[in-house]
Amino acid sequence: MSTLLCLAGGKAIVLAAGLFTLSWTHSVEKIAWQERWAVTPDGLVLREARVKGSGAGMEPGEGAHREDGWWVWEPRAAPLAELVLASSGATGSGWTLCAANGCRELGREKGEPIVLRPCAEAGADTGQEPGK
């Protein structure tokens, strides 16, 4: 059974097994960062974080270990009702959201914040991807 992730504006993305990865490059340190999220009935749950190095505001979390050049750890945080991504257009890139059905870039250009949240399945526009 698929779980739905909605973006601000009501578009729904169907995610197999309810998992997605969000990756970006830190705007100051220019270091790669990745987070693996699960869409659950309780909200968005951060399952794993990875950072390619360390720097200002990018210290590996508790229990981090090295794996293929990345610091990897399992954050302990409560589920989030929504995840808000700023879209300043000043960082040179946005976020890459990847799931079983492919990847898409979000927030590269200046604009309204992007809000990710679990969809209410009854009102979801299933099968629609952003910009399609």
Describe it.
This protein has 132 residues and is mostly beta strands. The chain has one domain. It is built from no helices and eleven strands. The protein is globular and about 35 Å long.
Short précis:
With 132 residues, the chain is mainly β.
Mean pLDDT, as a whole number?
A: 79
- Class by helix and strand content? mainly beta
Portion in helices? under 10%
Largest sheet: 7 strands, antiparallel
> Strands across the major sheet, in which order?
6-7-5-4-3-9-10
Tally of helical segments: 0
Write down the Rg: 15 Å
SSE pattern: EEEEEEEEEEE
Number of domains: 1
Uncertain segments are 122-132
- As a percent range, the share of strand residues is 35-45%
Overall 3D shape: globular
Q: What labels would you give this structure?
A:
132 residues; mainly beta; four-stranded antiparallel β-sheet; globular
Secondary structure elements and pairings:
Layout: E1 3-7, E2 12-15, E3 19-25, E4 32-40, E5 43-51, E6 65-67, E7 70-73, E8 83-85, E9 95-99, E10 102-106, E11 114-118
Antiparallel strand pairs: 1-2, 1-11, 3-4, 3-9, 4-5, 5-7, 6-7, 8-11, 9-10
